[in-house]
Task: structure prediction
Amino acid sequence: MIKDKTYWLAAFVVLWGMWAGCTQQRQLCLTPKVASLVIESMHIISDTGTIFYDTVLPSAEFIPLTSVSSGQDTIVSPQASLFTISLSPKTDTCRWLFRADSTGIIPRDIIFDTLTFYYTRNLQFLSNACGYTYFYTLDTVITSHINIDSLHITNKSVTNDASAKHLQIYIHPDL
Amino acid sequence: MMPQQSIYRYIFILTFNGFMLLGSSCAYAQADTVATDTTSDHKVKKPDLAGHQLCIGVDYFHPIINSFLKNQYGYEIAADYYMKNEYYIAVEGGWGGSNVNYSDLQYNTTNSFLRFGFNRTLLVRDRPTDWDKMFIGLSLAGADIKRSPAYYIIEDSLWGNDTSRPVATAKAPPSFPAIWAELSGGVRVELVKGLCAGWTVRGKFMLNGKSFNSLSPLYIAGYGRGDKNTVFDCDMYISYAIRWKRKGLPLPDKTAPGAATKPDIAPGGGKDMKESPGR
Result:
């Protein structure tokens, strides 16, 4: 008898779960909606010029140009070698300002470099819960050379895969 | 005070459980009969004394569910025809649609669908006029989905929203088919002469899901959520059975014990039934 009651209780719980699942108006979006571009900072050892290693920047700062959220969009990453930024879904190009150290201990670090991204937008349907987003294919990245020595695109496909790395920034050997 | 919607939910769940209980009880009665038959020393192939049956029903589960959901609807009609050896041909069809009206995504879809397959009862009938059944089935289904122009907005708090525009037709065609396979199981119980009720649980497996990944329909009538490749679903039917005798066979002898009414199962069940004169 107890067994029967347990069975019916379990059946009731399962049915209730099915009911609750069916009557939910919109499913939760559980996947990242914004495609992120991951930048890795690298350092060249000046005496050989052939050995590279990733380097932790003390307080790197990224500021988007032509963004809409004025003042709230500066990214400051203390003690990191990987940085995540986004590309503009409105146009096929966007520009970021970058400096390696926002604390200003070394005067040269106060000056920003400019990173200009050129890319192709690819419309991507995620799900009915998340709607559409853009994935991007990087074409070119142009930079000034105050702190940055050079750039290397390692992965042209910018998606919502947070584990992918797309761009290496080689910091000037003198720094 | 309990909201009206919650009261409807409770009533519905109680009704559903009631039908499940009813179906399970009848199936239980049949299960004893099967156990008795398998104790015989040798199998004798009996002629199929059951007549023909065409059963036509409507699903009332999805209309009830969808009455609580403003963005989708679906209706389903089912028919099955008894062939022989406890096999039924099942044909089911219906129509429905969905209306997606989110802040960042808007479109409508409509579709009709058709299922074709067969069902096999798991339990041996205890007399030719016993049409209660617990069954499993396999079927193939197809739907023709039509979609209105779809509009989207890509929201971005940093760079600003990408303004609404229709999805290019090449990326998300406005008309496309969906094909899926189904494994099903269920129960049908005759409530009064010819009037049956029951439920079917279905596992559905989309076979061409990749063909509309560019914009999966929110809801495909007959299937469920269009962005899932595997869906589990339930139908609840009320149906009416039309029966006629098989050619060359006499009508069931209604005067025979146990023919007009269901045989009583005595305490101790199967053994007593085996020795009853009606068997």
Summary: Residues 4-36+51-252 of chain B form a domain with the Porin fold (CATH 2.40.160.20). The first helix of chain B runs from residue 4 to 37. DSSP finds three helices and ten strands in chain B.
